[in-house]
Amino acid sequence: MCQPDYTTTSLDAALVRLVRPGGRIVSVTNHVEVPHESRVAAAHVLVRNDPRDLESLVALVDDGAIELAVTEHHALAELSGLHRRGENGEIRGRVVIVSRA
Q1: 76-91, pLDDT tens digit by residue?
Q2: Which of 21, 27, 55, 64 could cross-link with 39 by S-S, CB 3.0 to 4.6 Å?
Q3: DSSP bridge partners of 41
Q4: Do residues 94 and 71 lie in contact, with contact meaning Cβ atoms separated by under 8 Å?
């Protein structure tokens, strides 16, 4: 099967068409080029993992201050299939991946 030859520019343009004027594209992978006339904003977000921040979030969930609506639970071995489902737009909601030693 032949894969399409996507360029960053064509992918950016496709993303912009999916967002309403005044909307925002947030990417954790790369900078998205957005034409000014599209009236769409873009942000590239980098996150630094901090175990203390994660502990604080877990405490908020445990205390009931934050409620998470989890739609699916899966084993780490199923990650590749979940990734394909995500690429196809088949995943809605939060998915928990469980790693067991």
Answers
A1: 999 999 988 988 888 8
A2: 21
A3: 24
A4: yes
What the block records as the tokens of 76 is: 């780490």
What's the full length of the chain, in residues? 101
CA distance 8 to 71: 32
Q: Which residue has the tokens 């780490």?
A: 76
75 is written with which tokens? 């084993």
Q: How many CB atoms lie within 10 A of CB 57?
A: 13
Q: Which residues is 75 bridged to in the sheet? A: 98
SS3 state of residue 4:
coil
Exposure string over 64-101, b if 16+ CB within 10 A, otherwise e: eeeeeeeeeeeeeeeeeebeeeeeeeeeeeebeeeeee
| pLDDT tops 50 at residue 39 | yes
Amino acid 9: pLDDT: 66
Measuring CA to CA, which residue among 11, 3, 54, 65 is closest to residue 33?
A: 11
When comparing pLDDT for 21 and 100, which is higher?
A: 21
